[in-house]
Amino acid sequence: MDMQGNRPLAVTQQQAWEALNDPEMLKACIPGCEKFELTEPNTYAVTTAIKIGPVAARFNGRVTLSDITPPQSYKLGFDAQGGVAGFGKGEAAVQLTPAGSGCELNYTVHSSVGGKIAQLGQRLIDGAAKSLAEDFFRRFDEALQQRYPSAAAPAAAVAEHTPMPKAGGGLPTWAWGAIAVVAAVVIYLVTKG
Questions:
Q1: How far apart are CA 44 and CA 36, in angstroms?
Q2: pLDDT value of residue 125
Q3: Of 32, 86, 120, 169, which one is least surrounded by beta carbons within 10 A?
Q4: With contact defined as beta carbons under 8 Å apart, do 45 and 37 qualify?
Q5: pLDDT tens for residues 96-149?
Q6: CB environment 26-54: b (16+ within 10 A), e (fewer)
Q7: Could you write out the three-class secondary structure of the chain?
Q8: Burial of 189 by CB count in 10 Å (0-12 exposed, 13-18 middle, 19+ buried)?
Q9: What ranges do the domains of the chain cover?
Q10: Cβ distance 185 to 111 under 8 Å?
């Protein structure tokens, strides 16, 4: 599965970078995230509970950051196990670029899944990925506005332009990607899919 997207943010590149490297903020923004903890340099243990159609599971995994270029970009490798529900693994790239008084977050996710979750219909998976992505970005925008109140005023203008993630063929893995992205996020995107 390949997924890519972008999101304008009403904060500076440095502020967005700090938020994307804050495990507590990511834990609060990723739908269903129960744990996002640093276990060693540039490596995080992650636990996320999700439900897509009839499949509900808790996924335990690891996110590893590489090719780190503050405050511009990094890559994330991720793998997650959900028992009988399946597994996900892949990589994501996150890039922040200045844009006016804010910045733009761009991401790409390459991932694969297996098990029961891989057997769900593509329309169901795509709908869940879209919903999780929007939920993540809504939470992330709100958290940024709380952390940086001066960005709250322009945020209304930024919210009007909210591009949706673009999924390629295959099963979107936004949660792993979002955890991975955006980490984040990424989600099935910028979070599981």
A1: 6
A2: 66
A3: 169
A4: yes
A5: 999 999 999 998 888 777 777 677 766 676 677 777 777 888 899 899 999 998
A6: bbebbbbbeebeeeeeeebebbbebebee
A7: CEEEEEEEECCCHHHHHHHHCCHHHHHHHCCCEEEEEEEECCEEEEEEEEEECCEEEEEEEEEEEEEEECCCEEEEEEEEECHHHCEEEEEEEEEEEEECCEEEEEEEEEEEEECHHHHCCHHHHHHHHHHHHHHHHHHHHHHHHHHCHHHHHHHHHHHCCCCCCEECCCCCCHHHHHHHCCECECCECCCEC
A8: buried
A9: 2-180
A10: no
Q: Which residue has the higher pLDDT, 182 or 148?
A: 148
Looking up tokens 């804010």 gives: 102
Chain-centre distance for alpha carbon 112: 15
pLDDT in tens, 1-52: 677 888 999 999 999 999 988 989 989 998 899 999 999 999 999 999 988 7
User: What would the two tokens of residue 137 be?
Assistant: 């970005």
2-180: what CATH class? alpha beta
Would residue 40 be called left, alpha or beta, if left means φ above 0 and alpha means ψ between -120 and 50 degrees?
Answer: beta
